[in-house]
Amino acid sequence: MSTPDPAPDRPGGRPVGRRAFLGIVGLGLSSLVWGDSATRWLSGAADVLPSSVRSALPSGWRIYAINPPYPRFDPATWTLEVDGLVDRPRSFTLAELQALPRADQTSDFHCVTGWSVDDVRWGGVRFKDLLAAVGPTSAAAALSFVSAEEDYFDMLTLEQASVDDAMLAYEMDGAPITRPHGAPVRLVMPQMYGYKGVKWVQRITLVDRIEDGYWEGRGYDRDAWVGRSNDFTKGL
Ligand SMILES: Nc1nc2c(c(=O)[nH]1)N[C@H]1C(S)=C(S)[C@@H](COP(=O)(O)O)O[C@H]1N2
Ligand SMILES: [Mo]
User: Is the distance from CB of 229 to CB of 193 less than 8 angstroms?
Assistant: First the structure.
């Protein structure tokens, strides 16, 4: 899907969201579009997710933004600022980011509202390589990812950012990240729900403690581990 969603990311874990969610599941069960994801689920692909979430909604991207229109990427002027508790704060052009060691991975993507996309291919830079260029001070404990989309941001501890499949991505499925998906760079954190994955990242600030991001200030879990956060066990 490629249109903005006026009601992004209302997880099933809250009353209103759950009602809407059950409505969508009901629709899905009675429609042909269900067939594909149900089949994949029944074929038993191994996954961290219990089957109730794996099969909750038809797969496929929903494009989310809290404040459309999407930020526009101008290659001539765009930079990523990396600052805060670092020895060498600096701004990176996209070419400079791409000159850092490149990482590639294939990972599944899960939105807390119940949709997933399997086998997304990402290309980008690991945080250890990005941070080596700026030198976090000994007081640094967390990273704040600030979007060019006003008010959207989220945070990871340094430890979380160092898990082996976290990255700052500039490619998705073999092509530069498109504008709806966060051009030119987005945070990819597959082990956590999609709201951690800040799109249109413009600034990364190193700070001494983690705080709530945009959705966390609205009730979602800061530690958004897939399958074990956001009242997951209370059921969908
Ligand atoms: N700037 C920004 N980043 C964002 C969001 C958003 O609204 N604004 N939504 C988040 C949520 S809840 C999800 S599930 C994913 C969705 O990614 P997509 O829009 O590329 O499908 O983006 C995340 N990153
Ligand atoms: Mo989401």
Answer: yes
Helices (H), the chain: 15-29, 34-42, 51-54, 94-99, 127-132, 158-161
Joined tokens for residue 92: 């990176």
Classify residue 174 by burial, with Cβ atoms within 10 Å: 0-12, 13-18, 19+. Answer: exposed
Q: Torsion-angle region of residue 174: left (phi > 0), alpha (psi -120 to 50) or beta?
A: left
CATH level 2 (architecture), domain 80-217: Alpha-Beta Complex (3.90)
Residue 86 alpha carbon to ligand 2 centre in Å: 30
DSSP state at residue 120: E
Ligand 1 cavity residues, CB under 6 Å: 8-9, 61-66, 111, 147, 149, 152, 181, 194-195, 197-200
- Direct distance between the N- and C-terminal alpha carbons of the chain, in angstroms, rounded to an integer: 23
**Residue-wise pLDDT tens digits, 69-99:** 999 999 999 999 999 999 999 999 999 999 9
Instruction: Delimit the domains of the chain by residue range.
Output: 80-217
Ligand 2 ion: residues within 5 Å (CB): 9, 111, 194-195
223 CA to middle of ligand 2, Å?
A: 14
Q: 58 CA distance to ligand 2 centroid (A)?
A: 14
List, for residues 214-224, the tens digit of each pLDDT value: 999 999 999 99
Cα–Cα distance, 28 to 12 (Å, whole number)? 15
Question: pTM to 2 decimals?
Answer: 0.81
